[in-house]
Amino acid sequence: MNRILKPGDTIGILGGGQLARMIALAAAPLGLKAHIFAPEAGSPAFQVADAVTQAAYDDHAALEAFAKAVDVVTYEFENVPVDTAAFLAGHVPLHPGARALGITQDRLEEKTFVSRLGIETAPFAEVNDEAELEAALAEIGRPAVLKTRRFGYDGKGQVIIREGDDAAAAFAAIGRHPAILEGFVPFEREVSVVAARTEDGRFAAFEVTENEHRHHILYRSTVPADVSPAVAAVSAEIARRIGEALGYVGVFAVEMFLVVVEGTQGVIVNEIAPRVHNSGHWTLDGGETSQFEQHVRAIAGWPLGATERRGRVEMTNLIGDEADSWHAVLEEPGAHLHLYGKAEARPGRKMGHVTRIFAED
Amino acid sequence: MNRILKPGDTIGILGGGQLARMIALAAAPLGLKAHIFAPEAGSPAFQVADAVTQAAYDDHAALEAFAKAVDVVTYEFENVPVDTAAFLAGHVPLHPGARALGITQDRLEEKTFVSRLGIETAPFAEVNDEAELEAALAEIGRPAVLKTRRFGYDGKGQVIIREGDDAAAAFAAIGRHPAILEGFVPFEREVSVVAARTEDGRFAAFEVTENEHRHHILYRSTVPADVSPAVAAVSAEIARRIGEALGYVGVFAVEMFLVVVEGTQGVIVNEIAPRVHNSGHWTLDGGETSQFEQHVRAIAGWPLGATERRGRVEMTNLIGDEADSWHAVLEEPGAHLHLYGKAEARPGRKMGHVTRIFAED
Questions:
Q1: Which of A187, A181, A186, A185 is nearest to A139 (CA)?
Q2: Domain ATP-grasp: where (chains A, B) (predicted)?
């Protein structure tokens, strides 16, 4: 279902966290209103939205009223229940659509989809029981990573199986859920491409970004990434092909491993995120258009914005009590503070981020 | 009354128009909530605020509840009723304060204040009746501008008196309100300085901006202005001294006429606006810190942000149906659209603006 929005229209957003909040903040200068649908009281996005529905994702009455009140629906997280997405899509345009959600919610489906496009991934195999796990380990070797097919994020729902580790214990550790075993990729660095696609096939990618994780959570992104021009071009082309094959509408991220084989850099796709992405936060101050504005433009059926960079950019997450440094950030010339309006700074919780723009080397 | 805010605190804003809206949008990334107090249903700022009070400015019960719900109060327009300001200031810090409001609400007080600082203004005289007007005209000469002392903006409440014009008719035209007669300044251009001051006396000015008006409404601002380095320095110094003398807290604008006497540029102060200002909108994309973020930092008692410019910047207002060009603006690389969420595009109504950033010449 297609619809081109006009100023004054309303974007419905499922989820009330920082990504929804930053989408809402980007929608306003474009003349669009935001309506947030989230179950949690005090959701950060509620603070900046024109309208709010606090309800469960399976509350069909609330979903129906929400669908009637908005002109398009998008979401900030890939684990939108399939039923919720299907119900909404019956009433109002849903971007990104059910196909993108279905594939990216399942690691096995996702890896299969990517490799069928002829794009390299880690070797992988389906695991439904101990016997399949043993067979997969024999094929893929150790170390390998066992991951639940669904509902994993920030390192949750996965376990590394090394030489000597008990496979059955590893399967138990992830709750014996349907899983995927992935070969361990000896990568140099992690990179990502954040890109946008419109319903009529226009595409624009931000520059490939280099990402540093700590404790499985993104710690820092830097642009430009230290990659060869060939890798930069290939990464963008991979994103374009994935977007095309998904019939994708909106902003998405492709997380990749940078590998070096015989001195030559290459990339292996790790994961697709069907949403704005932490590794694209640098675009808020460092890009000509932010990923959030780009997402709004894409789902509105509007022209995509310019993706140029304003300098060398570094984005650092503020995790847990790191957000206590807010005053020091405000004192630092050229640093831009982004706090998410969360009341409680729990360990591991993303409380905000800082972007720093430097003159090009 | 001083209070240093912390993330999670709430800024109360009187007025629900585009300036309040852009202050609220700037407060969010700093972790602050916005509570808008405005009488008009459907106020643009309501769309992006955490909380809203729709009530009259003389509704003391509503004002008291508002004051209790917020940590500081600011405003988007200088015509805040004195009673409203005084009532709020008795409950919660009000920035800018009563002194700045009192002086800037009255053109005669304002001109007197500025000229007592030894800063040049147009020649002016108090006018309360026809006899005073005739005396003032005899002293100042024609052409001259007769303005109501209070409640004028965008060219409203003023009339030019030229050779042969009937003085009594001019006085009648402005409703025989207490007035000020100002000498006509043969200016080359109009410029302004937007600056911020904190309660403890820190000060930061954005670069002097050149402003082009059409039909008494700002049409375009450009930075850098075509002024001499001496004028640039003097303009910032004028703003600093005015801020200091007012004990000002927050962002304010000083509108000035650029005059050329015997080949040398000079400035004459025309008006002080005790608020964020249309001629500072270019800072939203063109400045390292926007005037809106700067205002929030100042009233929060926080460090002021960097005032560097990101290139040559042009800000163009979208007045009335000019906002219909929104789609063309979105198609233009490097143009940034800012719509104000107003439902109806009446003639002369500020509907939005566009900033364009160009590489430095």
A1: A181
A2: 111-300
